[in-house]
Design a protein that fits this description.
This protein has an eight-stranded mixed sheet. It has a two-stranded antiparallel ribbon with strand order 7-8. With about 450 residues, the protein is of the alpha+beta class. Among the domains are: about 170 residues, Beta Polymerase, domain 2, CATH 3.30.460; about 120 residues, Orthogonal Bundle (cca-adding enzyme, domain 2). Helices cover about 50% and strands about 10% of the residues. The N terminus and C terminus are likely disordered. The chain is elongated and about 80 Å long. Helix 14 packs antiparallel against helix 15, helix 15 crosses helix 17 and helix 16 packs antiparallel against helix 17. The chain is built from 23 helices and twelve strands. The structure holds adenosine-5'-triphosphate and magnesium ion (MG). The site of adenosine-5'-triphosphate has 13 residues, from helix 9.
Length: about 450
């Protein structure tokens, strides 16, 4: 039955005669039900259509529904300009400069509405479009037809349009056939498309890992060769893409694929170094496995924790260097943390809101070593204790530090008052500790 339905989708007679005509795939064949689309996306398409424009659900959501996955979010494409979209919906705003789009708000759901993008012509106004000598697109606000819009998307599986009114999927580049054949295929000439936007190199690897699609041969071929193009991508775009990659639920596969294709070099300095040292590699892999497991079981995963693990072995190296130069351990750790973040920021700008939590997790680590007096009790009340403790356990598991320390904290956290008192280690360095008393006050501000 399913086979028959699929055959109907791919029946040659249904194929468009020219590339200008999309293949129109009907409800019976594509199997997408309207109730699988968010109400907000449906209302957005309806609003646009009522106002005399076109409105389609587009991109990742259509692809995910065809593949039987639940879409993360729904994007809408239209022939209305951002200003026209803005007029149709009272609760909407135009955002972006490099790529102007409209956010339409429905309760707490936001739908991104994108106007069909057209071809870049030499005579285009510099305000609307900008392309570098190497072919990279810096700004893209040239509007065009739906067919042109489809050609400007990255992969065939991402260039599908769902019309909720007719319940039809419009397919200009045989995306449905590629999905069925389990292929991720770039639209157009691969090298040109990667040069236009090198982030597509990462997207190829990420989407293939996430969706279980094989990167088609011609799409695959230039990837390693063009890896250096990623050096020019802005740190904040790289961060967004890496975050998606790490939190996709397929981080391990993605990282392994990035390495196999030589895309990791220079991307995250940490991956260069860390993946080459056995202990660091084990730590990163454990952390990624952990993240994948959490996401698989529907839990959220904190990007700060993840990035703290990815950079930890860099921090350890820098920390040792500062201690060897005669710094006291705690100030040395703070110098090390700042240095690692600064070096990293040149390549990949980790958002500030994550950086402060990462620093909290790191600066808590030496405090786990202090198991005498009142200090363990104070650490337990730290607002980020749980993250710091999970981090400690990963360090134990990776072999960096003794498992005994992790076990001690596991027991201490849940122990009775009596047992806790028994567990405390003797306070056998009174002099040193007293002298340090003034410093932790400064350190604790960060902790
Ligand atoms: P995900 O499920 O991870 O969000 P996605 O394909 O939906 O994957 P988005 O970043 O949400 O990724 O992009 C939405 C759509 O915009 C894509 O499906 C694709 O059609 C188009 N797109 C996104 N990034 C690019 C790009 N770099 N070049 C060309 N088209 C792109
Ligand atoms: Mg998406």
């Amino acid at each position: 039955m399913i086979k028959r339905l699929l055959q109907r989708v791919f029946k040659p007679s249904k194929k468009p005669a020219s590339p200008h005509q999309p293949q129109r795939i009907q409800r019976k064949s594509h199997g997408i039900r309207k109730d699988q689309i968010s109400q907000a996306a449906l209302k957005t398409c309806e609003g646009l259509q009522k106002a005399g424009y076109e409105g389609y659900v587009v991109g990742g959501a259509v692809r995910d529904l065809l593949m039987g996955f639940k879409p993360k979010d729904f994007d809408v494409a239209t022939n209305a300009t951002p200003e026209q979209v803005n007029k149709v919906f009272r609760r909407s705003r135009i955002i972006g400069r490099r790529f102007r789009i409209v956010h339409v708000l429905w309760g707490n759901e936001t739908i991104e509405v994108t106007t069909f993008r057209g071809h870049h012509q030499n005579e285009s106004s510099a305000d609307d479009a900008a392309v570098t000598d190497s072919g990279r697109i810096l700004r893209d606000n040239i509007f065009g037809s739906m067919e042109e819009d489809a050609a400007r998307r990255d992969f065939t599986a991402n260039a599908l349009y769902y019309d909720p009114a007719r319940e039809e999927v419009l397919d200009f580049h045989h995306g449905v056939a590629d999905i069925k054949a389990n292929l991720l295929r770039i639209i157009g000439e691969p090298k040109t498309r990667y040069r236009e936007d090198p982030v597509r190199l990462l997207r190829a690897v990420r989407l293939s890992a996430k969706l279980g699609l094989k990167i088609e041969a011609a799409t695959q071929k230039p990837i390693s060769e063009l890896a250096d193009l990623l050096q020019d991508v802005s740190p904040s775009r790289l961060f967004d893409e890496m975050l998606k990659l790490f939190l996709s639920g397929h981080a391990m596969e993605s990282i392994n694929a990035l390495r196999a294709q030589h895309l990791h070099h220079g991307l995250l300095p940490l991956l260069d170094v860390v993946l080459e040292q056995p202990l660091g590699e084990r730590f990163v892999m454990l952390s990624l496995e952990n993240t994948d497991r959490r996401i698989e079981s529907g839990k959220s995963s904190n990007p700060s924790f993840l990035f703290a693990t990815l950079l930890w072995h860099e921090v350890l190296v820098a920390w040792k260097k500062f201690k060897d130069q005669g710094e006291h351990p705690i100030p040395a750790l703070h110098l090390a943390m700042n240095q690692v973040i600064d070096i990293q920021a040149g390549k990949l700008a980790i958002h500030n809101r994550y950086v402060s939590t990462m620093k909290e997790i790191w600066s808590m680590q030496p405090r786990f070593e202090q198991r005498a007096g009142k200090r363990p009790y104070a650490l337990l009340t730290h607002p980020r204790y749980r993250a710091g403790y999970d981090f400690l356990l990963l360090r134990c598991e990776s072999g960096e530090i003794s498992q005994e320390l992790g076990d001690w904290w596991t027991e201490f956290a849940d122990a009775s008052t009596e047992r806790r008192t028994q567990m405390l280690l003797p306070d056998n360095a009174p002099k040193k500790r007293r002298r340090r008393k003034r410093k932790p006050a400064a350190a604790q501000q960060h902790a």
